[in-house]
Amino acid sequence: MSVMGRVALVTGGAQGIGRAVVEALLRSGAKVSVVDINQSCGDVCKSELDAEFGGDNCAFIQCDVTDGHALRDAFQKTVELFGRLDIVINNAGINNEKNWEKTIDVNLTSLIKGTYLGLEHMSREHGKRGGTIVNVSSMAAFLHSPHQPVYTATKHGVIGFTRAMADASILGNYGVRINALCPAFVDTPLLQSVEDEDNMGKFIKFKEDFKRSMDKFGVLQPSLIAEGMMTLITDPSLNGAVMKITCSKGIHFHTYEPMST
Ligand SMILES: NC(=O)C1=CN([C@@H]2O[C@H](COP(=O)(O)OP(=O)(O)OC[C@H]3O[C@@H](n4cnc5c(N)ncnc54)[C@H](O)[C@@H]3O)[C@@H](O)[C@H]2O)C=CC1
Ligand SMILES: CC/C=C\C[C@H](O)C(=O)/C=C/C=C/C=C/C=C/[C@@H](O)C/C=C\CCC(=O)O
User: Fold this and answer.
1) Contact in structure between 186 and 136 (CB atoms under 8 Å)
2) Which end of the chain is less crowded, N or C, counting CB atoms within 10 A of the terminal residue's CB?
3) What's an example GO BP annotation here (predicted)?
């Protein structure tokens, strides 16, 4: 599927992985709505993207994804601005073991809301023409990081939810492909949260072990994550897929055994 002329909404799109994905989409001819809580970062992002890709191709919508009404408005505004919606990237995420309830709210609850809103705007069930959703999980879902138990739980949850919804989409003939992306460590501002007790909470005492884990597994560049993301967005054969991206194996897929009776 070509993304030329298609419309995408990317949560957490103002920096890091989200920003790299926004740029990849714009480069391929999509129009993109950047939905992010950070007004100043979003303003800088918007002016830089306007300079590179032209002013009519991208919008910044300031929105806290945990505010259900604001998130609904962000979807609506995207459709009003660009006339349609084809691609939803639920990417916004935080690492906060101290305020772990907020981590569940941002990383899982809001991602579920974003998926349901995406379906309202794209599913054949709602009289729409179909589309694609990618939910951002993490390799933490496979390595159950002892430095981030709640973060890890949210990323497991993202995979379970995504795979169940992908099956629902087939059963319900939604015409929407739903996939998950699991990067290992990526060089973004999120990595700085390892230094901060306000984020790590009582697990700050494992900080050095955490850093050893980053040294061991390496740190990826956001551009590679955007490359994997574009495959999930454009490959029509992918639904319920769980893409992993690691330094050792690059872009690859997790395989599941078929369910036995
Ligand atoms: N950086 C890494 O090592 C890895 C990151 N991930 C996941 O990738 C996704 C993106 O992470 P990064 O780009 O690394 O993080 P980042 O911190 O660089 O960027 C996250 C973006 O999300 C926005 N955001 C945070 N809370 C929000 C909220 N309540 N409402 C709206 N926007 C909000 C931030 O303002 C920021 O622009 C997250 O889901 C993260 O869990 C997964 C694996 C590894
Ligand atoms: C302070 C950092 C905050 C948030 C980011 C968070 O820690 C996160 O999501 C990071 C996850 C990193 C996981 C890294 C693991 C990498 C593992 C691989 O190299 C293992 C090798 C192969 C995988 C096996 C397979 O079948 O693919």
Assistant:
1) no
2) C
3) prostaglandin metabolic process
